């Protein structure tokens, strides 16, 4: 499968999407999974609700000491469970339109340079490699729809992008950073 993936980077027609999907599933299965207990889940949930929560406020809910919570959070950071703490911005209040999702079909032989170029664009908040008809997806925010049109036209002229499909978000129906309840149930 790894050979198939390397061949696909050079010539996308060498391997089927099914083979690539199986390869990525295999990679995901062998990646280490960190096991968490109830207290770790409680800590994570509290931090997801309020990233500025103090050790003492978390300790009260978890019925542990501040020092124990601090050590557990340090352990979660060390294990890679917590990669960063950040603010969730309301882009509407800052004068931006709803997000636009842009799907891109790209030339895999130019993938590395293309990703580097796309990462340099300010309007692109998130960039994902995906399986399916299109192989990259970006979440962009722009101040107005005219800017969106100009930016998407500019994207269309970037070397390595062969096709673009866009979706404008009309309204956000659900957004959460909470852990799924099932993940806790499976672990305990």
Mean pLDDT: 84
Number of DSSP strand runs: 4
**N- to C-terminal separation?**
34 Å
- What is the CATH topology descriptor of the largest domain? Alpha-Beta Plaits
Largest sheet: 4 strands, antiparallel
Strand percentage: 5-15%
Supply the number of helical segments: 8
Helix content: 40-55%
Shape descriptor reads elongated
Low-confidence stretches: none
Helix/strand/pairing category: alpha+beta
Specify the CATH class of the largest domain: Alpha Beta
In the CATH hierarchy, the architecture of the largest domain is 2-Layer Sandwich
Main-sheet strand order equals: 2-3-1-4
What pattern of helices and strands is seen along the backbone?
HHHHHEHEEHEH
Fourth CATH level, the homologous superfamily of the largest domain? Lrp/AsnC effector binding domain/regulation of amino acid metabolism (RAM) domain
The rounded Rg comes to 21 Å
Number of domains: 3
């Amino acid at each position: 499968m790894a050979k198939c993936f390397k061949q696909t980077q050079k010539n996308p027609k060498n391997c089927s999407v099914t083979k690539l999907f199986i390869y990525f599933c295999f990679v995901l299965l062998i990646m280490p999974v960190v096991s968490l207990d109830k207290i770790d889940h409680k800590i994570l949930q509290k931090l997801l609700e309020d990233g500025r929560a103090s050790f003492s406020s978390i300790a009260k809910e978890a019925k542990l000491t501040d020092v124990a919570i601090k050590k557990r959070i340090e352990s979660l950071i060390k294990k890679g469970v917590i990669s960063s703490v950040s603010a969730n911005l309301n882009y509407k209040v800052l004068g931006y339109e709803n997000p636009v999702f842009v799907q891109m079909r790209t030339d895999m032989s130019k993938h590395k340079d293309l990703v580097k170029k796309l990462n340099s664009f300010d309007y692109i908040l998130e960039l994902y490699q995906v399986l399916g008809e299109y192989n990259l997806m970006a979440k962009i925010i722009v101040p107005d729809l005219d800017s969106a049109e100009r930016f998407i036209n500019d994207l269309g002229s970037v070397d390595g992008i062969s096709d673009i499909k866009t979706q404008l978000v009309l309204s956000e129906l659900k957004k959460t950073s909470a852990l799924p309840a099932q993940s806790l149930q499976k672990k305990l």
